[in-house]
Amino acid sequence: MPIAWAPVLTSRDPDFLRRVRRAAMAALAVSAVVIAGCGDDATTATSAETTPSPETTAPISETQAMIEERGAPKVTVPEQPATKLEITDLEEGSGDEVQAGATITAHYVGVAQGTGKKFDSSWDRGDPVTFPLGQVIQGWTEGLVGMKVGGRRQLVIPGSQAYGEQPPPESGIEPDETLVFVIDLVRIDDSGPTVDEEALTAAEARGAPTVKVPDPLPEELTSTDEVTGTGDEVTAGAEVTVHYTGVSAGSGEKFDSSWDRREPATFSLDQVIPGWGEGMVGMKVGGRRTLVIPPAQAYGEDPPPGSGIEPGETLVFVIDLVGIG
Question: Between 20 and 30 A from 150 (CA), which of 16, 63, 231, 305?
Fold first, then answer.
């Protein structure tokens, strides 16, 4: 699944991704490409011959039935890397049209242009995938706007709008590689994340924070409200929508930021590192909070591969809370 990296979440379960419709790490902890299988020839159509999950045994919509009758697509790979996003409608849909930030359900195949090899396919898993466009690579965020339900669209995405210099580990994607996706749009889900527009406007007016690493580092989890919110209060296990920046205390280097993706992130506090799960409780919508998270409540000795986080690293996050639920 082409989901933008936000190394906060720890779940790598694709069912979690579908259930909460939020991108998460396994997608890079989040990361994210859910790698279902690598090494297939991109020019060969691949049928979904895997055993259906319990979800797929339930009645499916007329649109999904039509798409599955259409079958997994062949992906034509350009000879040269892309210099800009290229959008081609292979089949015109007749349903609702995708708006910016929508949550969608889609079947797709992804192929790396350099090798011509498939690196991911929902068809191989036998089930379309649901996620918000605010949480995916930029080429998807921009390239699916205007697509209609029932349609099939090809996106040729330059490296700068895919994973750039840091592709997901073991994905088979090279740094700055052009990616080609063929996407079948099953439906648009209107039940997206709850965002307090006033809180979001205030956060954007403040802008991306400068994260200061305390010296000396605390040995326990600490939370400091830089700005106290006036909205609803976070409870344990809540689903939150936030802007955030994370810094490794040892190097002082940023390893992740929703600000860089120009979209806040939404996820359940049941699915994040313990420092977030505990440190966000009591924060109010509209606020900005700094968390200093010791290794035992972050990633300990096993940080996400390619994250830039060292084993045993203390992490510092500055978080703007813009929605709950």
Answer: 16
Q: What is the DSSP letter of 162?
A: T
Name the strand (E) or helix (H) holding 206: helix 197-206
Rounded distance between C-alpha atoms, residue 269 and residue 279, angstroms: 10
- Return the number of other C-beta atoms located less than 10 Å from residue 74's C-beta: 13
Show the beta-strand stretches assigned E in 65-215. Answer: 86-91, 103-112, 117-121, 129-132, 152-157, 179-189
- Average pLDDT of span 268-283: 92
pLDDT digits (tens, 9 = 90+) for 1-36: 343 333 343 333 333 333 333 333 223 222 222 222
CA distances 315 to 11, 26, 156, 262, Å, are 19, 19, 36, 22
Which is nearest to 15 in space by CA: 5, 31, 1, 28?
1
Q: Is the pLDDT of residue 53 over 70?
A: no
Query: For 295-322, how does the pLDDT look when each residue is reduced to its tens digit (9 = 90+)?
Result: 999 999 988 877 889 999 999 999 999 9
* β-sheet bridge partners, residue 267: 240
**Which are the catalytic amino acids?**
244, 255-256, 273, 299, 317
Contacts of 44 (CB under 8 A, 6+ apart): 74
Buried-exposed string 178-204: b where 16+ CB fall within 10 A, e elsewhere: bbbbbbbbbbbeeebbebbeebbebbe
pTM: 0.55
185: DSSP letter: E
Two tokens at 277? 């799960």
Q: Quote helix, strand, coil % in the chain, to nearest 5.
A: 20, 30, 55
